[in-house]
Design brief:
Blueprint: E1 3-14, H1 53-65, E2 69-70, E3 73-74, E4 77-80, E5 90-93, E6 100-109, E7 112-125, E8 129-131, E9 143-145, E10 152-158, H2 165-182, E11 194-204, E12 214-219, H3 222-241, E13 249-254, E14 259-265, E15 275-276, E16 283-284, H4 287-294, H5 301-312, H6 316-322, H7 326-336, H8 342-360, H9 371-382, H10 388-400, H11 405-412, H12 420-433, H13 435-442, H14 449-459, H15 466-477
Parallel strand pairs: 12-13
Antiparallel strand pairs: 1-10, 1-11, 2-6, 3-16, 4-5, 4-15, 6-7, 7-10, 8-9, 11-12, 13-14
Helix pairs in contact: 2-3, 7-9, 9-10, 10-11, 12-14, 12-15, 14-15
């Protein structure tokens, strides 16, 4: 019997607000433990939450970007459960009246585009963090850091429309791209600002009813998501093949052992005893506010890709990489304002620029060679002021020095020689010094021309225009 997987993801993305969702504490990552807390986010008696307006605006933006229905009158609910790092004993979230519903995201699969439905997007506060690291605590001991407690989250809950780990990763990639394009989250999985829980079941192919589902937690990279889903799908199929039942439970992914282990029985919504949050009034988004939020919606990835194809006529591969990041796409377009050979720009951005970004681990926002400088460099190549190989030396120089391209070329002495009379002198010298190669060429071994061109470039210290060198060499050799 063949089986298929049924996967739904619950994605939590931390928002790039300066303060928490219900208080004025900072959301900055990496501060000293428990240094960014106050009576409100610690859940002290007598304190009252006050909603951060920016969280609502970011939720609406993501709803618009995912074709969701925006509930302009929505409200918060209390989600009751116990964790050591949840000081109030409940989480302020949304349940029956979330801010966004019934959206979708399109992903690319081997069979073309596929639409993944979204049940809901809702606002909520994050819990704190339990620290089990033995560098800080002894064996079987835990410390609690409540800095993260109250950090604003959007939870995006998908329909069970995903059928493979590859589709799940594609969906996650698309969601992360969207929140980054919108500027509402940095999408950093390693720091926990973009994370997901997965609900997985398997069923015989062709069966409509869902199987018993489990939930996977503790996956903080795309590769972990892929491996964890593959492991759990295989585990469930093996159970069914052996006549055993799949237990409904929550599993933790063990990164070191590459296996999932039981954490607890899986809860249903009634286990959380949701009820309307009594300390917050319902959220009402009037039309002027809604339209003001809509006006800030940027050009989204799919729209940008379509425009790049029409406007710049680049290959699909180039477009996919250039538009993966909004900042990278902006950099490309800033260069294109000054220089119109778009394929040449793409080659340099995907080549030299990306090489440096990968090596230095910096953002394109912090890239030391401005778009205007790169356009000047490409213009110098096109006008044959410098060769492509010389341009790479200039590029490396500009990474460390705040000079113009002309200043860098002069400083490095790389200005290309295109004057035929000057190059002819080098050509005649090489012909005199290499009689056997000249004779070989004249006897039909024309491939030797490459060696002779290289010798001319050597004596000219790389400054001779290779096209002029090639033309003059052939002319002299064939006289």
């Amino acid at each position: 019997m063949e089986y298929e997987a049924v996967i739904g993801l619950e994605v939590h993305t931390q928002l790039l607000t300066e303060t928490k969702i219900f208080c004025g504490c900072s959301t900055k990552f990496g501060a000293e433990p428990n240094s960014q807390t106050c009576p409100v986010c610690l859940g002290m008696p007598g304190t009252l939450p006050v909603l951060n307006k920016k969280v609502v605006e970011y939720a609406v933006l993501l709803g618009l970007a995912t074709h969701s229905q925006i509930r302009r009158n929505n409200r918060f609910a209390r989600k009751n459960y116990f964790y050591p790092d949840l000081p109030k004993g409940y989480q302020i979230s949304q349940f029956e009246e979330p801010i966004c519903e019934n959206g979708y995201v399109e992903i690319e699969t081997d069979n073309g585009k596929k639409r993944i439905g979204l049940i809901r997007i809702h606002m909520e506060e994050d819990a704190g963090k339990s620290v089990h690291n033995e560098d800080y605590v002894g064996e079987n001991e835990t410390l609690i850091d409540l800095n993260r407690c109250g950090t604003p989250l959007l939870e995006i809950v998908s329909e069970p429309d995903l059928r493979s780990p590859a589709e799940a990763v594609a969906y996650l990639s698309k969601l992360r791209q969207l929140v980054r394009y919108l500027g509402i989250s940095d999408g950093n999985m390693e720091e926990g600002s973009f994370r997901c829980d997965a609900n997985i079941s398997v069923r015989p192919k062709g069966q409509r009813e869902f199987g018993t589902r489990t939930e996977l937690k503790n996956m903080n990279s795309f590769s972990h998501v892929q491996k964890a889903l593959e492991f759990e799908i295989e585990r469930q199929i093996n159970l069914l093949k052996n006549g055993q039942k799949v237990e409904q439970e929550t599993l933790l992914w063990d990164v070191q052992k590459n296996e999932a282990r039981p954490m607890r029985g899986k809860e249903e919504s009634h286990d959380y005893r949701y009820f309307p949050e009594p300390d917050l009034v319902p959220v009402s988004i009037d039309m002027p506010w809604f339209e003001a939020i809509r006006s800030t919606l940027p050009e989204l990835p799919d729209e940008k890709s379509a425009r790049f194809k029409e406007q710049y006529e680049l290959p699909d591969y180039d477009i996919a990489i250039l538009t993966e990041s909004r900042d990278m796409a902006d950099y490309f377009e800033q260069v294109a304002e000054y220089f119109k050979n778009y394929k040449m720009i793409s080659n340099w951005v995907l080549g030299e620029v990306s090489r440096v970004l990968n090596e230095t681990k910096i953002s394109i926002r912090d890239f030391p060679v401005s778009a205007q400088r790169l356009s000047e460099l490409l213009t110098a190549i096109e006008k044959k002021i410098i060769s492509t190989s010389a341009a790479k030396k200039v590029f490396d120089y500009l990474l460390k020095n705040d000079h113009t391209v002309d200043q860098a070329i002069d400083k490095l002495g790389l200005k290309q020689i295109s004057d035929s009379s000057a190059i002819e002198t080098f050509v005649e010298q090489i012909i005199r010094e290499n009689p056997s190669e000249v004779e070989a060429y004249r006897n039909g071994k024309t491939k030797v021309i490459g060696f002779l061109v290289g010798q001319v470039m050597r004596v000219s210290k790389g400054k001779a225009n290779p096209q002029v060198v090639n033309r003059l060499l052939r002319k002299k050799l064939e006289e």
